[in-house]
Amino acid sequence: MDYADDRNGEQQGMDDGDQSMGLAEYTYIVREIELQPRWRARADKEADYGDGNQLEGELLQRMQQAGIPPAVEDQIGPALRAIQGYEAASRTDWRVTPNGGLGGQDVADAINYRLNEAERMSKADKACSDAFRSQIGPGLGWVEVSRNANPLEYPYRCTAIHRNEIHWDFHCKPDMSDARWLRRHRWLHPTRLAGIFPDHRAMILEMGKGSTAWWANMPGAIEGGTSTGLSSTWGDSRGWTISEDRWYNP
User: Fold this and answer.
1) Of 145, 181, 144, 141, which is closest to residue 164 (Cα–Cα)?
2) Which of 1, 59, 78, 123 is 20 to 30 A (C-alpha) from 105?
3) Residue 76: φ, ψ to 5°
4) Residues forming beta bridges with residue 183, ordered by sequence position
């Protein structure tokens, strides 16, 4: 499928009013990601410098063999920590202000009470501070606001997300107000995935254990001896597209 076909497939999905993402659209997004500037390796190196890891492994080994102690003159790390301290000292609570309407102050006070409770219980301040460290270092930080799956804790939680988990539309404005897509790509332990998709627990836990023919260890996966719904997946998996290849990595 060439570039034009991908675009046509994406446009067709939008014209039909289908909100689900099709294979052609996702393949187009993956290709966009592959053509983006290679900035992540540089960002990782900048983060290492901020953490005091400024000497490469080979150099450290040679210095150790020669009996030379590693000498790092860390200047950027203390500067970043000083800026972090300023951010923590100047931090204020989130606040809602009325627009001047009748009774607006009472409504704002009620909303402020709930908002400050959410800010405190969801640990939003810590998440923003962690993302701020990444912003003043490599230059980019993300915070996720999500529902908490634990019924015994606060319903919402805020968590700082590593920059390498996020890919976004490079053609959008700096505030991402017109971004066409944003993707989060994250590696999870198989047991966690099995908990999220209990119907496919056996297949998830079996993946990646041996050779590429791991399907042979799945009873009924090829022969259809049991009602697994996987009788045709061995044949289907013998060919894949550029986007599916990303998900077949065990």
Assistant:
1) 141
2) 123
3) -75, -35
4) 167
Helices (H), the chain: 3-15, 23-34, 40-50, 57-65, 76-89, 104-121, 124-136, 190-196, 201-206, 233-236, 242-247
Instruction: Check whether 223 has a pLDDT greater than 60.
Output: no
- Confidence (pLDDT) at 233: 58
Measured CA distances, 114 to 27, 103, 107 (Å): 42, 18, 11
φ/ψ (deg, to 5) at 195: -70, -30
State the sign of the Cα–Cα–Cα–Cα dihedral 14, 175, 140, 118: negative
Q: Give, in order, the Cα–Cα distances in Å from 69 to each of 52, 57, 107, 108, 154.
A: 15, 13, 63, 59, 48
Strands 182-184 and 166-168: antiparallel
Q: Are 135 and 141 in contact (CB under 8 A)?
A: yes
pLDDT the model gives residue 11: 43
List b or e across 103-120, with b for residues whose CB sees 16 or more CB atoms inside 10 angstroms. eeeeebeeeeeebeebee
Residue type, 202: A
CA dist 157 and 120 (Å) reads 10
How do residues 165-198 score in pLDDT, each as one tens digit?
999 999 999 889 999 999 998 888 888 889 989 9
Structure tokens at 67: 């009996």
In this structure, what are the phi and psi dihedrals at residue 238, rounded to the nearest 5 degrees? Answer: -75, -15
